[in-house]
Amino acid sequence: MVGVKDSWTDVTPQQRAESTQIRQTDERAIQRDLARFSKKATGRLTKHVPRETCIVRIPATAQDGYFRLVLCDEKKKVLTACPVFRIASATADSSVVRGAGLRMMPIELGVKVGSTIASAAVSKYTGGPIRGAIGSRVKKYGEKAMKAQKLGAKAYETSGLDKHVQEHQKQYDEALRNHYKPMDVREGTFPLSGVQSPEIQIIGSDTGPDEPFPIKFQGLTVPGTGRSKADLDMPTANLRHVPEHIKVRMPGVYIAWAQVVVEPSSNLDISQDWHEAIVTIAPLVHEIPSVVPRNKVVVHILQDFEDASFVGCQVNVMLMAFVRPAAVPRTLDEARDVQSRDILVAMVSLGRAQWQADEAMFLEAGKDSQQHGQRTIAERLTDLRLKVQDQVDRIPVHLMGLRTDSASIRDEGYGQGGLWIVR
């Protein structure tokens, strides 16, 4: 309806970028479009001057359909709008039509019609003699399979497992959403008091870390730019293969324990003890701006490894407490000042008896054992399915145009995103 803005989705770009920071092919395409507009412009359009290029991110919640970008002022008064365009994702089900309008419906249904004709053709050419030749053998083994299927279904119902599976199906959707739901660091036990204070405050109580800590995960060290080592003179591990829900749910800076795992066949002489560490989960400071800023996990280990490189080694991490939100320092001096404060907070807070690495591991093991004993079969099925989902989410099916439920839920944690370039 004209004038109704309830269905609008705010896609205002959140980060500024330079034209040199985007792909050259994209910049050339933008310049071609601007040149084409200037060449065809007439009347008042000849006085138009390019001011900004906006690269927007349309969230998955918009789903498939027809859209148009609207440029408006602060009061949502429409200044101009682009032509209507369509967003569509692929699906493995040929009977599903995604985002098609009435004019495009025949083309969309062509996929379904094609699959129906193909099925009819196969049935036509595999009937008659072929069906008669193998029909008796199929019937023989089919009867045995049917009996086994009925016996299995009967045992399944008698065991009561079907009730647990049904309960699990009800729990899984909510569990998956909570699995990727961003953690609000301003609620619960997350200590934010004293972050802006000039005094160094101890985080948490002397009895140990509060829930949900400690949180344990691991990742593989990959080569970095070397700038943090050069600027801050601290061993730094950039981790890959960290569970996606950790990166999506928990942005910020944490105090932690870190352990470098060295393969027995390696010649590296690196301490494999647990060391104090500062973990930052945020987009890399020196990374080129992107339309969808992705959080990376960077571990600053408070230990002198004497310039030894542990690239390719696995690093185990135990997050102990939240320190502060991640922020980009304006100057190198400011970065070093923040680093000094974080180091003092980590050393003082982790130096207490109940905050030691072995105590944290014992606490985590006891928590897992207690939860495992109290969990129902449905809850265990949900936990197992979430672990499997973490592995499945590593497969980049979005490159094929496929949109999964978990990807749509995970998409909510990426923020608004988008880039704008001054012309």
TrEMBL record:
Region (Disordered) residue spans: 1-23
InterPro entries linked: Riboflavin_kinase, Riboflavin_kinase_bac/euk, Riboflavin_kinase_dom_sf
Similarity comment text for this entry: Belongs to the flavokinase family.
Pathway: Cofactor biosynthesis; FMN biosynthesis; FMN from riboflavin (ATP route): step 1/1
One matching Pfam family: Flavokinase
Name under which the protein is recorded: Riboflavin kinase
Function per UniProt: Catalyzes the phosphorylation of riboflavin (vitamin B2) to form flavin mononucleotide (FMN) coenzyme.
Annotated coiled-coil segments of the chain: none
Keywords on record: ATP-binding, Flavoprotein, FMN, Kinase, Nucleotide-binding, Transferase
SUPFAM superfamilies to which the protein is assigned, alphabetical: Riboflavin kinase-like
E.C. designation(s): 2.7.1.26
Keyword Flavoprotein: yes
Gene Ontology CC entries for this record: mitochondrion
Domain called Riboflavin kinase: residue spans: 214-345
SMART domains with a match to the protein in the record: Flavokinase
Annotated GO biological process: FMN biosynthetic process; riboflavin biosynthetic process
PANTHER family according to UniProt: RIBOFLAVIN KINASE (PTHR22749:SF6), RIBOFLAVIN KINASE/FMN ADENYLYLTRANSFERASE (PTHR22749)
Keyword Ubl conjugation attached: no
UniProt feature, compositional bias: Polar residues: 9-23
Gene: FMN1_1
Ranges that cross the membrane: none
Catalysed reactions, semicolon-separated: riboflavin + ATP = FMN + ADP + H(+)
GO molecular function annotation: ATP binding; riboflavin kinase activity
Enzyme's top EC category: transferase
